[in-house]
Design brief:
alpha/beta; Peroxisomal Thiolase, Chain A, domain 1; five-stranded mixed sheet; two-stranded antiparallel sheet; globular
Length: about 230
Amino acid sequence: MGESGKPSRRVVITGIGMVTSLGNDVESTWRALLAGASGAGPITQFDHDDYPVHFACELRDFDPTDWVDHKSSRRMDRFTQMILAAARQAEQDSGIDIAAEPERVGASIATGIGGLKSFQDCYDILIHRGPDRVSPFSIPCIIPNMGAGWVSIELGTKGPLRSECTACAASNMAIGGAVDEIRLGRWSPVARRRRSPASGSPVSTPCGRSRGGTRRPRAPRGRSTWRATGS
């Protein structure tokens, strides 16, 4: 039941967007999945010679400027670029006109840890080149809520904004929270980001520090999936 005592609203999926190790959109990912293709391959995001695991399920041929302008993309961590790519696809697939009622469109985003690659880069520059060389955009790239922030900025949503950062539980919390908000009548359409446990956790982050700290589980990178939902 909703807050007014009326039956809760039905929640439906109206659009999907995906960027995965099998493809950079829904169609190519699904086609590769049906063909039994593997998303695993040699690690390319960092030097892995000293690590016991040399493969990961990375994105291939991913160009963030397909979805966001070059200047903005340079101010984002890779995790945010992935979020925006999937969000744009879901927006197009759903046919939702966000500009018509931006106050009624929200976003619920999940990430396991945020911009860990940007954190590593910032640390390396600080140690080897000094504090004066650290980019002023380092913090906006690192903090996990910027995935949600950039979705709101780029898509023009002005409704409620959620940013879950609770390791492997984040995806379930983002999905569940968004569904509850719609059922209770607080939100109308909402873009939800769902990540598999591996991709939403620090285990999946394609940088040396995270791999060094999580090499025992040896978990490959997972996938990043968006679903646009409405009532």
